[in-house]
Design brief:
Elements lengths: L19 E11 L2 E12 L14 H8 L7 E6 L5 H6 L16 H4 L1
Antiparallel strand pairs: 1-2, 1-3
Length: 111
């Protein structure tokens, strides 16, 4: 995955600023293995981030963590000036490339 470790300045700014996603020191672990290690970036309204990498590099893991679908082991994901989980959930959408339902699992396990 081509995102370098960084620590962007996510300090609060004036309230008239556009929507801003800020990630600081984000790490994610899956199955006991650290997939994402200490990354950071800022995106403001109208900006895009291109994440490139081979299969298994952590691209989908990053998206799932940003959407709140995976727990993070460290770091902060904030929207605008604060870490507001409700606001982040209301402004984040995740559409995967494949159906997330597994036929071998029960309804409860799929949830």
């Amino acid at each position: 995955m081509n995102i370098s470790p960084s620590t962007p300045s996510c300090a609060p700014t004036g309230s008239s600023q556009p929507l801003r996603l800020c990630v600081e020191g984000l790490s994610v672990q899956r199955a006991g293995r650290r997939i994402i290690d200490n990354i950071g970036f800022k995106l403001t309204e109208g900006e895009a981030l291109v994440v490139c990498g081979r299969n298994g590099a952590g691209k989908s893991t990053l998206l799932r963590a940003l959407a709140g679908l995976l727990p993070t082991t460290q770091g902060v994901i904030s929207l605008n000036r604060g870490v507001l989980e409700v606001e982040l959930a209301q402004n984040t959408h995740y559409l995967a490339h494949a159906d997330g339902m597994k036929l071998a699992l029960s309804v409860e396990e799929n949830l």
